[in-house]
């Protein structure tokens, strides 16, 4: 294909992905009330615990604040809803330039990364109320918990993304192994640091009195790390067998 043909193909894929995103945003907009209600449930719990319904609430600092929050939520959820379409468009554009081996690796990477990411997002959603409730306990007597809507949304969104990405990191370790950057033994040697990092991350992400939540998150991250190390060592063994077989043939 010529450069002009590549650009036309890219524009076509981009337009289809953009249309899917807009449709996803429209669908998400319909459910923004339910999403906002679920997001703000921890605030209502804090208000009930403190008995101060008027002083524990979500605040909009501008006239367009409520619309802006709905638009942000629609965009984030719309990206998730339309992901199968725009991911396919991206894949269809890149696939002709990939080798059969690269296609196989890419499919495996995406097939593992997507469910792990959504699993991490789900775990982040479960621990989010604990964080809000615990932070509210540090409010001094006589003060109020009035949460800025923009800041509150950013907190929830960033927490979900960070926990989701942390679940995908083991897949990147396997990808580095397949690329020949790190061996399985090298990954496994870092198990002490991995457990320490997983524990610290879990402690920061779940600052609640419930230690079980912290141990659960740290345990999941540790298991994923050892699974990545085990897979990498298996790939190394297969690679060395192929290399020995090729050496004997020569």
TrEMBL record:
Biological processes, Gene Ontology terms:
intracellular protein transmembrane transport; protein transport by the Tat complex
User: Which Gene Ontology terms of cellular component type are present?
Assistant: TAT protein transport complex
Q: How does it sit in the membrane?
A: Multi-pass membrane protein
Subcellular location, record wording:
Cell membrane; Membrane
Q: Which residues cross the membrane?
A: 14-39, 73-94, 106-128, 155-179, 191-209, 215-235
The keyword Transcription is assigned to this record: no
Q: Which family does it belong to?
A: Belongs to the TatC family.
Q: How does it assemble?
A: The Tat system comprises two distinct complexes: a TatABC complex, containing multiple copies of TatA, TatB and TatC subunits, and a separate TatA complex, containing only TatA subunits. Substrates initially bind to the TatABC complex, which probably triggers association of the separate TatA complex to form the active translocon.
The task this protein performs is described as:
Part of the twin-arginine translocation (Tat) system that transports large folded proteins containing a characteristic twin-arginine motif in their signal peptide across membranes. Together with TatB, TatC is part of a receptor directly interacting with Tat signal peptides.
Q: What is this protein called?
A: Sec-independent protein translocase protein TatC
Organism, scientific name: Microbacterium telephonicum
